[in-house]
Design goal:
This protein is an alpha/beta fold and 595 residues long. It contains 18 helices and 15 strands. Among the domains are: 98 residues, no CATH class; 144 residues, Rossmann fold; 153 residues, no CATH class. Helices cover 44% and strands 12% of the residues. The strands form three sheets. It has a ten-stranded mixed sheet, sandwiched between helices. Strands 7-6-10 form a three-stranded mixed sheet, with no helix packed on it. Strands 8-9 form a two-stranded antiparallel sheet. Strand 14, helix 18 and strand 15 form a beta-alpha-beta unit. Helix 3 crosses helix 4, helix 8 runs parallel beside helix 9 and helix 9 crosses helix 18.
Length: 595
């Protein structure tokens, strides 16, 4: 068994079986040679202490293993001995260790060193075998007991943690979204990757069972401290509601919904846009905070990589396998991808080079051209267009160490402090430690100094380090005419123009297409529209060089603002900017003056 599991290098050859009974003749030969080596010492007084210590060590380990299995209360551990007692096993293990020292102290020390070395090696190597060990059972028991104990603890602002439900779909389809959220949840809070399967129930059930194990392994292999949670639903909104209500366990439940910005909202069906917007409203109804993440290049890279084949290649072989990705640009779907594995090095279209990374390691990475580094699973069969090259670059930008730059926080609404807490947590991570926080707030021109001092005092009480505070007195200034014109041009296809139609026709159209923007609505929310356009101008002026921007998310009143107008606000606010997080808490305090 030891040789078959390939736990120690060089021993697998002794596991080869022969004959009908698959007898390990090589193993027998190895055992014979070891025994012969001790016999050849030919001095019983020398052999006895060594042999006795090794036997006592094995008895001690067996007794302790039995005790540990009982301690873990595993249902699979059912001892048949009538007079068995776990504490007698523990006493037996301790006595064996004591007797080892009584017989020969130096042989006992030697035995301990050998056993400890073998244990450390197995722990470090982490062999891909599942023994159903008592350690796993005890880990489960501890997790269960602590979860139950935690469920009886009342929430307190000092113990608030961002526990995020991320609508990722397949986790490897949006790596930038995953890594950015991981930057402020790693070792701090819970992260659950939600995946809504839509379509025929029978097919979806098969996918759920396979995806659950597959993508959880993918997260572990990529060192993501997260859980994968798939559900089947008729549409995205139903699936999101299921996840928000049922995901988590006890106090370890999500309190923040994270979604990527719907970049193609103008080209997709507006029914899907309404579903997307309703997710926000549902999140607020369930007392969730909401975070919308937008990258200029986009988040979805599923059309650039083969998810199934990539995962299977990682599982089958410890070495990196070459994946040829063929991107089909003739289709509009973002998930159409054809991939194949390169069977030999002669078929590679791009050479692999070893480049020194920031940690001093030398991972092998394919290079599309000098200066562009991609994950080791990307070997492209043909040059990508410029947009896909940028998308590929942006998908890995949060996996690298961030240089000296700024995280700009635009705190425009008091939503409980989540907009301030997230950037603080990001800067506590090793990759982001060189980034400084700059805070932008709105104010009046004649009170700029006063507002800056007040904000500095507040941040000091919150114990949040910052490099600068900027008070914007011109935040309510009317935006530039060309930007207003660009916004009006953007929303033109979504307007109802009821004044140009008969009343019956306009009412019927509004009933059938509630997402359309009415003239009255546009006039009623003109000030708010201008504010989003103006904020984008200020963002470009002050934060165009920031690593990331964290900003308060504008919220539309449910049933009062059409989906098209709200998406136009988000588009106008966040376009042509560095990575931006639009954050809105649930108005429960997450920061306190008291530690």
């Amino acid at each position: 068994a030891l040789c078959k599991d390939n736990i120690y290098p060089g021993f697998q050859m002794f596991a080869k079986g022969y004959g009908k009974n698959n007898e390990p003749l090589r193993g027998y030969l190895l055992t014979f040679l070891i025994a012969l080596g001790f016999i050849l010492i030919a001095e019983l007084n020398v052999i006895a202490p060594i042999i006795s210590n090794f036997f006592l060590a094995s008895y001690a380990l067996i007794n302790f293993s039995v005790f540990h299995a009982s301690l873990a209360k595993s249902p699979g551990w059912r001892p048949a001995f009538k007079y068995y007692n776990m504490w007698i096993s523990l006493v037996g293990a301790i006595l064996c260790c004591i007797v080892m020292f009584v017989i020969n102290w130096w042989a006992a020390l030697l035995t301990y060193v050998i056993v400890l070395g073998l244990y450390i090696y197995v722990t470090y190597k982490k062999p891909d075998v599942n023994w159903g060990s008592s350690t796993q059972a005890l880990t489960y028991l501890n997790a269960l007991q602590h979860s139950i104990r935690l469920s009886g603890v009342e929430d307190h602002v000092k113990n608030f943690r961002p526990q995020c439900l991320i609508m990722t779909g397949p986790p490897n389809a949006r790596p930038a979204l995953l890594h950015l959220v991981h930057a402020f949840t790693k070792n701090v809070g819970l992260m659950i990757c939600g995946h809504v399967h839509m379509g025929p129930r029978r097919q979806a059930m098969k996918e759920l069972s396979t995806d659950l194990a597959k993508y959880q392994r993918w997260l572990i292999k990529n060192k993501m401290k997260a859980f994968y949670a798939p559900v089947h639903a008729e549409d995205l909104r139903d699936g999101g509601q299921y996840l928000m209500q049922a995901a988590g366990l006890g106090r370890m439940r999500p309190n923040t919904l994270v979604v990527g910005f719907k970049k193609n909202w103008r080209q997709t069906e507006m029914r899907d846009v309404e579903t997307y917007i309703n997710l926000f409203h549902d999140a607020f109804d369930f007392q969730y905070g909401v975070v919308v993440i937008r990258l200029k290049e986009g988040l979805d890279v599923s059309h650039l990589q083969g998810q199934e084949e990539l995962l299977s290649s990682q599982e089958k072989s410890p070495c990196t396998k070459d994946v040829i990705v063929k991107v089909d640009y003739s289709k509009k779907s973002e998930t159409d991808t054809s991939i194949a594995f390169a069977p030999s090095s002669s078929e590679k279209t791009h050479a692999l080079r070893k480049e020194e990374d920031e940690d001093g390691k030398t991972p092998t990475q394919p290079l599309l051209k000098k200066g562009r580094h991609f994950p080791p699973f990307f070997v492209l069969s043909s040059p990508l267009n410029l947009a896909d090259q940028r998308l590929l670059d942006s998908s890995t930008q949060f996996q690298k160490k961030q240089g000296k730059s700024n995280i700009d926080v635009w705190w425009l609404f008091d939503d409980g402090g989540l907009t301030l807490l997230i950037p603080y947590l990001i800067t506590t991570k090793k990759k982001w430690k060189d980034c400084k926080i700059r805070v932008f707030i709105g104010g009046k021109i004649n009170r700029i100094d006063h507002d800056r001092r007040a904000m500095a005092t507040l941040l000091s009480k919150f114990r949040i380090d910052f490099s600068d505070i900027m008070v914007l007195g011109d935040i309510n200034t009317k935006p530039k005419k060309e930007n207003i014109a660009a916004f009006e041009e953007m929303i033109e296809p979504f307007r109802l123009h009821e004044d140009d139609k008969e009343q019956d026709v306009a009412d019927k159209m509004k009933e059938d297409e509630p997402w359309r923007i009415t003239d009255n609505e546009l006039e009623l929310y003109k000030t708010k529209t201008y504010r989003q356009i103006r904020l984008n101008e200020l963002l470009k002026e002050h934060s165009s060089t920031a690593n990331i921007i964290v900003m308060s998310l504008p919220v539309a009143r449910k049933g009062a603002v059409s989906s098209a107008l709200y998406m136009a606000w988000l588009e106008a606010l966040s376009k042509d900017l560095p990575p931006i997080l639009l954050v809105r808490g649930n108005h429960q305090s997450v920061l306190t003056f008291y530690s």
